[in-house]
Amino acid sequence: MKQTFRASEIVNNLLNFSRTGAAEVADIDVNRVVKNFVVVAHPMKTSQIQIVKQLGDGLPRCAARQTNCSKYF
Q: Can you tell me the distance from the alpha carbon of 27 to that of 67, in angstroms, rounded to the nearest whole number?
């Protein structure tokens, strides 16, 4: 069951990552964008790649295009 949930989470994050959607500027949570990227990138990790995730507590939301940020983090 845990693996099914994990597979579903990966597929949903890949879909969100690949969608172009509306290019509207909105208030986004940068920590959430980074977390979603790590979920997408983790299966591609090899023994020579290390993912280090350092999130800031209490960061203010910032005005940005969600789709653009997802592709650069």
A: 12
